[in-house]
Amino acid sequence: MSWRYLRTADRLTNTLSNNLINMKIFKTNSNITLFFAASFVAAMAVPKLAEGKEIVTDEHEIQPDPSTNVMKCPPYGCPLLPRDMYFDEDAKRALKVIRFNNAHTPPYDDGDVVEIDLDSSQALELLKNAGGKDRATLTLIGYKGGDLKEQINQDRAFVISPYFVQQTEDQDNSDNKQSAIRLMGVFDGHAKLGELVSEYTVSTLPKLLSTKLETIIAESEVDTLQTDVQKALIETFIELDKTAPAEKSGGCTASVVLQLGKDAYVANAGDSRSLIATYNKATSEVKIVYITREDKPDLPEERSRVESMGGQVYVPTPDRIRMGASSRVLYVDPVTGGTNGLAMSRSIGDWAAGEKGVIPDPTVDVIDIEKLINGNEECAASAENAAEGEPSQCRGDIEVFAVSATDGLLDFMNVNDIANTVATSLYVDDGPHPLSACESLITTAASAWWQAKNGQYRDDIAIAVSKLSLD
Question: The pTM is what?
Answer without folding.
Answer: 0.82
